[in-house]
Amino acid sequence: MMQWRRMEAVVLLVLLGQLASALDVPLDLSQPPTITHQSPKDYIIDPRESIVIHCEAKGNPHPSFLWTRNGTHFDTDEDPNVTMKPHSGTLVVDISREKAEHYEAVYQCTARNKHGTAVSNNIVVRQSRSPLWSKERIKPIVVHEGMSLVLPCRPPAGLPPPIIFWMDNNFQKLPQSSRVSQSLNGDLYFSNVLVEDSRNDYICYARFPHTQTIQQKQPITVKVINLDALNDTMAAFYNDTDLFSDDPLEERKPTFLIPSGPSSSKMVLRGQVLELECIAEGLPTPEISWSKRSSVLPVERTSFPHYQKTLRIVNVSQSDEGEYRCTAKNRLGSAQHAIHVTVRAAPYWLAGPPRNLVLAPRENGVLTCRAGGTPKPAITWTVNGVPIENAPKDESRKVEGDSIIFTEVQTDSSAVYQCNVSNDYGYLLSNAFVNVLSESPRVLTPSNKVYQVIKNHQALMDCASFGSPVPKITWFKESRSSTLDGDPYVVHDNGTLGIHVAQVRHSGKYTCVAQNFFGNYENHVYLEVKEPTRILKQPEYKVVQRGRSVVFECRVKHDPSLVPSTTWLKDKEELPEDKRLTVESDSLTIADVTEDDAGVYTCIANTTLDRDSASAELTVVEATPTPAVAYEQPDAPTDLELTDLKKRSVQLTWTPGDEHSSPIQKFLIQYQDSLHHRGHWHNLTEVPGTKTTAHLKLSPYIHYTFRVLALNAVGFSRPSAPSRMYRTEPAAPDENPTGVHGFGTEPDNLVISWKPLSGLQSNGPGLHYRVMWRRKKVESDWTSVTVSNYTQFVVSGTPTFVPYELKVQAINDHGAGPEPDVAHGYSGEDLPLTAPQNVRYEVQNSTLAEVRWDPVPPREMRGILKGYKVYYRREHALHKHNPHHVEEHVLTFSGNRSHGLLPGLRPFSRYAFNVRAFNGRGEGPASSTHRFETPEGVPGAPSFLMVTDPNPDSFTLEWSPPHERNGHVLGYTLKYQPVNNSNEVGPVMEMALAPNETSLTLLNLKYNTRYKFYLNARTGSGEGPAISQEAVIIMDEAVASRQVDIATQGWFIGLMCAIALLILILLIICFIQRNKGGKYPVKEKEDAHTDPEFQPMKEDDCTFGEYSDNEDHKPLKGSRTPSNGTVKRDDSDDSLVDYGEGEDGQFNEDGSFIGQYSGKSVSRDTGEGPERSEAPSPINAMNSLNSFV
User: Fold this and answer.
1) Where is the composition biased (Polar residues) (predicted)?
2) What residues have CB less than 8 Å from 212, skipping those under 6 apart?
3) What residues are paired with 655 via a beta bridge?
4) pLDDT tens across 1042-1053, in order?
5) How far from 698 is each of 616, 670, 766, 852, CA to CA, in Å?
6) Which of 459, 636, 705, 985 can bridge 718 by disulfide, Cβ–Cβ 3.0-4.6 Å?
């Protein structure tokens, strides 16, 4: 009994260990070192480059690194050629001052911090070698035609071994065949030689892949002679050649060149490549075949390179062990050779290497180091690099074979364990740490991540988490009315929520809650289910004459939120760059079609989530004056005939109709059952288009009539004329009803239902059913009843929710069907008898509580347990200002649960709750009502914040306490700061206010300044959100009011209108005086400017010269002076030129100018008549008005 309990505990520990090992510790938490990258065990280096031996590790604190060389400490600081990369254990060896072989050794890296030590593999560093071929003089080889020949290569031993190939002087590979081939060791074998094999440049090359160098052997000369030339050849080569003096043979049966003898053996390691070789000589050339005794060769892993002379099996397993036989055969005979293959195995992991353990204090776990190998490997454990038997004792640790069991670990149990598995063929070394942590949950999946999936596809939403103990993941959707752990939702072991077939209704916001003993953490993600992308109008088969155009359509329907892209392919490749091809959003156009355009065109509609494609073929035909070939549907088949008539089969033959230039691809055979479904044709089978007969399997009790349709590339033909009717004889049913179920609709009944047989399945008249049932696990006989062609039968008077065994058998007038399978069901359910007991609660925080209960015993459930419902209500808030009110809620927990979370609670409130179990019938009685109070939370924002009574240097703020106080309000915090026009903020002023204050006057503020105010309340749990308001200090409101009042007075408006009218009258008078010319003081201005250099009228253009003063360059009165001191004619108001043009300028008798007062001419040479005059210039008129005023 004790041993059984011990085994049970070990199994439980294994499960816990596997669960804990799935965690990846975030790097900001304390953890032992983990080696993340290291050089391979067998590390071959290039002697021309620096040596880099990798050793990278992570941990917290970051680990330090040490190295051993050939088992002793390697002080890297003492070797000037060796440096260690910063924050890394990687060694860089500069070999510019030292030969590479000086550093050939076995290295091992150690990474350690205060929590443990991790070690790397033993890294054997060797430099690659590509030695030169030894110099030798190779004599020419003379051989008789038909004899065998072996040209040895024997390359120098390199590291790694070289790759061998044979070429000639022109670096062309020598041709090989079943007669001439290269062996695995590089030698060149001739099963028999021909005269054309004679040449003087058989050269063996060795390529050393690590250094990318190629070495070559001295060329070999081969001379093949026949009997007629034998005497001459011997005379020419006798003194300086090797002559194969065996008697030439005409033909001979095969013999093996390699391997020798009747049998041989070979050992290969598991996972490697097995290569067996048999090369035979003979004339004619033998053919090689392979077989395995008492077994077959694994087809997927087997190949026969080198013209069947090599058997190659990759990824060798233990099943490949055995005797293999190669057979060489020609028409004169055969030879065989047996090769006994033994498979050994270096150590390999059976279920992966040991995994890291993250445990909370007093938790249990297990490290497992399970490996296989042949021979069976030995397992040794070390702790922080020290053999476990020499390590400090740990009472929580116990070694049992390939496992280390940890029981009630403590915080000082953190360490790194090394598992070393070895046998004669290799070793495995793996580090796995035990990290003892106490951490509240955290969700590693990014917050508010959006998952998009196509409708009817699988949806997966991550909730990667970490915590110690391992957090439990719970999912909610939108309102959190119930947890998501039933159909269609699946919560995977890693916390991922899956929906097997996503629908649009599944879109929305999802919340995952990670919870352990130390707290909980929420994360929100969003799911968007999109409509699939579909090609509505697919491209169709086209036959086009050369030189014409063709259009392939491709109309796509997609989700409006996705952006599709359409791609066209020709024969599964991208379209060529050709201006004749025009790709639009829903079509492809090919202009001036050529023969090269023929092929299969594929339209691919892509979005970021899915794709759809459709293809069509283009056939290009020659353009001829004769009408193009008409491709039509085939004609209907004719001459249907039934032969070989049997009870369950018949032979149908027919004659195909005209194909209409498109070959028939297949024939579709349909039947009509005149007895059960007259007038309805059903598909029976299809046959290839090359056949005109079909063997049809039939069912009993059917009146068959057949017809045939032909299909070509254009479409289906019309149906053929029906065949004659063939009636099959009735028989007993061949099958029984499917879908047999048992359930109850009342507490005392059992409803047995099934899917009835169709008329085709009945096999005869008089179909009825024998329904049988009996209590399960009770020794009782079957009770049976025969019913007509119904789909269910009700058994009354049954006990409540009792399991039954059920059978339904089909029977007709010709007998009963086969023995039916046993189905299972339950009689009707009733409401649960009792309520959950031992109901208790634990308030987690101000918004979350956990409820626990003891499940209702199964015998009192009286049905299938569907889950538990927690009814809870908020009775009132604990604050005196909040009224009593009740908010009723219910949370459903599906399945056999014993606890649940009540999220979204209101802080500082009193709640009442009870728990009820429910089954398929309904809810059971409620448990006793329990009450709990939630602690204080942070308050809500103040109800309002407003600015009143603004003054030039002060404001009054008024506010109201928060609606949601969530506790005792301890006071308010007011913050305010100035904001300039560019939205740059100034320093923040902060004030603490008493809880009973609801207004405050701020003095000494800056006028004409915008201020921003923030006000929030606080309770014992902290400060709540702030409410903000803005206001601006402006000039004195009274002054502004008076100014506005004056501007809006009637007398002020009237005064402004009178002034405007007076100005308008003065302007009119001025215009009238100017037009009359009587008042223009030209004479006075002439007298004022008595400059002898006054310019008279120019005779060539009939214009007046400008007034000027050459002494001081003063401008005329009323004119504007430019910055350079000159006076421009255009700017002088009194220039005569500005008053008229050309011959229009005239004077009165008194010398005054009588032309109209006009602006400067736009063009001096208009060519118009002398009667033309300009309109008065309002600009000059204004200048005159200014002078007048």
Assistant:
1) 1180-1189
2) none
3) 638
4) 344 455 567 778
5) 38, 12, 20, 63
6) 636
